[in-house]
Design brief:
By secondary structure, chain A is α/β, with parallel strands linked by helices. Helix content of chain A is 23%, strand content 18%. By secondary structure, chain B is α/β, with parallel strands linked by helices. Chain B has a single domain, classed as DsrEFH-like (Hypothetical Protein Ychn, Chain: A), CATH 3.40.1260. Chain B has a five-stranded parallel sheet with strand order 4-3-2-1-5. Classes of the chains: A alpha/beta, B alpha/beta.
Chain lengths: 122, 98
């Protein structure tokens, strides 16, 4: 049987500042990236808030780890998907802190997610 | 007896804010803080505006700015953390929704 290369999806469903989930997910993505593993990032639910532009974590005495999203390209992490329905629900525009993100409708998002062998949810 | 409601979670993720709205009275005060700031763009915020007059609806300015949440002055008033402390001391009782 044909076995495709294993790929990992990291599913982000929490807002960035109140919990450590977002930071943990990003750290793990970068670790996979540095070992040249195939990794894709998915943002849904409150996870879409992670990529919104002009956030200022220093206002709540937090280090701006969101800046690290800009480094994803250097780790060859180029598959970044956002659920369009989650953006609409929250009244958010397609105004992200990084370029090269793909906004997918619910169906496309689900199909894309199903292509991965391992899914980690944060 | 008026009550201060401190809303700390996003209604898109949890139903704390919905539970809060089920018990608020017109004389109460609502403060959005931490991820609760995201509720400003949730449909439920309209319910809050219907139940409580605008002068008693607040959002913590630094928390909103940290999250890049757009402030509409017709929907909410800005509050500093120092003023929140004053507000808590002035109010008879408070509930934290988280």
């Amino acid at each position: 049987m044909y076995s495709p290369v294993k790929s990992v999806a990291i599913m982000n469903s929490n807002a960035p500042l109140s919990k450590a989930n977002a930071k943990d997910a990003l750290d793990i993505a970068l670790i996979f990236g540095s070992y040249e593993q195939s990794v894709s990032l998915y943002f849904q639910g409150d996870g879409v808030y992670q990529l919104i532009a002009h956030q200022q974590p220093e206002k709540v005495q937090q280090k701006d780890f969101l800046k690290t999203f800009a480094a994803l390209a250097f780790y060859d992490i180029e598959n970044i998907f956002i659920c369009h329905d989650s953006l609409i629900q929250r009244g958010l525009a397609d105004n992200f802190s990084i370029e090269n993100v793909q906004v997918l409708n619910r169906n496309e998002y689900a199909i894309s997610l199903h292509q991965h062998q391992t899914i980690l949810r944060f | 007896m008026s009550m201060l409601h401190l809303v700390r979670t996003s209604a898109f993720q949890a139903n704390d804010f919905e539970q809060c709205l089920n018990v608020v009275q017109p004389s109460d005060t609502i403060v959005l803080l931490d991820d609760g700031c995201y509720n400003l763009s949730h449909d439920l915020w309209q319910q809050a505006l219907n139940k409580i007059a605008l002068p008693s609806l607040y959002i913590i300015e630094a928390h909103a700015q940290a999250r890049s949440v757009n402030i509409d002055n017709n929907k909410v008033n800005l509050l500093s953390l120092d003023s929140l402390m004053t507000l808590i001391c002035e109010t008879d009782k408070s509930v934290t929704w988280q």
